[in-house]
Amino acid sequence: MVNVAIAGSNGLAQFIANFLSTKTCHQFIILSRFPKPTLVSKGWQVLEVDYANNSKLRYTLTGVDVVISTISGQAETALITAAAQVNVRRFMPSEFEGPPSLRSFSSLPDRGNSTSISLLQQYGMEYTVFTCGVFYERFAPGGMAAFQIGQGTRIDREGEYLINLRSMTAEIPYLSDGRNSFICMTSAQDVARAVVAAIDLPRWPTEIRMFGDRVSLTGLVGIVERVSGQELKKSFVSVESLRQLYGQAKASNNVRQQSRFAHLMDAGNGCYDFDTCNLTSLVNIQPQRFQEWLRLVWSW
Length: 300
Ligand SMILES: NC(=O)c1ccc[n+]([C@@H]2O[C@H](COP(=O)([O-])OP(=O)(O)OC[C@H]3O[C@@H](n4cnc5c(N)ncnc54)[C@H](OP(=O)(O)O)[C@@H]3O)[C@@H](O)[C@H]2O)c1
Prior knowledge:
Elements: E1 3-7, H1 11-23, E2 27-32, H2 37-40, E3 45-48, H3 54-61, E4 66-69, H4 73-85, E5 90-92, H5 113-123, E6 126-127, E7 129-131, E8 134-135, E9 163-164, E10 169-174, E11 182-186, H6 188-198, E12 207-209, E13 213-216, H7 217-228, E14 233-238, H8 239-251, H9 255-268, H10 279-282, H11 290-298
GO molecular function, one term: oxidoreductase activity
Domain NmrA-like: 38-256
InterPro entries: NAD(P)-bd_dom_sf, NmrA-like, NmrA/Isoflavone_reductase-like
């Protein structure tokens, strides 16, 4: 039995807690800045934390073996420091996106991920970065917000990313050399399942890569058209023009638009693309394919 602390109470944290409580004997606590009566009513233990209070954080983490973080920035670095001080054995930082090696191509603002990894290396703590590409939930009815995921991304509402499945429109970024960009994707449920399975591994590699599907952006549109039986109205937008639109959104202080354009640029620039996946050699999990997931969530 392992003592686990999940930092944050968003949808991903809840998926992880659900797998921990239903599929394992591990004990877990959820760390949140606020009381969470809905989570407590599920029988889960929620401890209120103030990430600026190191001594209380150390006290809360005493006896914890593994921290799974869904929080970012200064709060996460404070959590890593406190965890190192009380000898927490393993730390999974809040990543769950594209590979860190492609971060330098990203147009998104840094949420402190690189700092967190540097700190984990500095403290010599065992860690693993979960790389899973984009969540399928970006294409769900109600978007990621319907699962309480992605508030920090500012593209969590339905239809804000690549494809709007209600209006059946798609915005497909392309590179000036005409290369078709690829994207890796996984359902957040499968990510949570894999995260929980990884707790039992004797050793963690510094990165665990998984995806349910790897498709080109036009291939993604093709899947939606096949599954829905409808043709999408497609507009192709170059990464260069997205960069200009991003600049305009920044000048007018439109944060949501900035985020949308940055996410589209990242898709076009291949920031979520990787072709090797070491998850299946580590744990026995076959992630759901995008097509099956899409059919189920939209009842097509
Ligand atoms: N691959 C994808 O497509 C994708 C999409 C979305 C997210 N993600 C990943 O999923 C993880 C969660 O991201 P998210 O956007 O869903 O969550 P988020 O909105 O950034 O928040 C995560 C948690 O952080 C805590 N938090 C928020 N603001 C904070 C602050 N100022 N100080 C301290 N704590 C704060 C909150 O916990 P409490 O309120 O309980 O304290 C919240 O539950 C991240 O690792 C992200 O990279 C991946």
